[in-house]
Amino acid sequence: MCGIVGYVGRREAAPLIVEGLKKLEYRGYDSFGVATIGKTLELDKHKGRISENAQSALRLKGK
């Protein structure tokens, strides 16, 4: 299954996106990716559950 979470605003985006992905995780996700835009585009993607790999995604800077 596929699910998409997005955020546009002034706060740091990664924590909000990760929280949204965690709420969709029950649907059987086996991979995820998070991208943020600050001075550059930052991308973090993983195979596995968000609950097991969220720390690297939370390090992304950008809004």
Word description of this protein:
With 63 residues, the protein is α+β, with helices and mostly antiparallel strands. The chain has one domain (13-58). Helices cover 33% and strands 22% of the residues. The chain is built from 2 helices and 2 strands. The chain has helices at residues 13-24, 50-58; strands at residues 31-37, 41-47. The chain has a two-stranded antiparallel sheet with strand order 1-2. The chain is globular and about 35 Å long. The termini are far apart.
* Elements, N to C (H/E): HEEH
Could you say how many structural domains there are in total?
1
How are the strands of the biggest sheet laid out side by side?
Answer: 1-2
Quantity of strands, as a count: 2
Task: Pick out its properties.
2 strands, two-stranded antiparallel sheet, globular, 63 residues, alpha+beta
Describe the structure concisely for a colleague.
With 63 residues, the chain is α+β, with helices and mostly antiparallel strands. Helices cover 33% and strands 22% of the residues. Strands 1-2 form a two-stranded antiparallel sheet.
Draw up the topology in text.
Elements: H1 13-24, E1 31-37, E2 41-47, H2 50-58
Antiparallel strand pairs: 1-2
Helix pairs in contact: 1-2
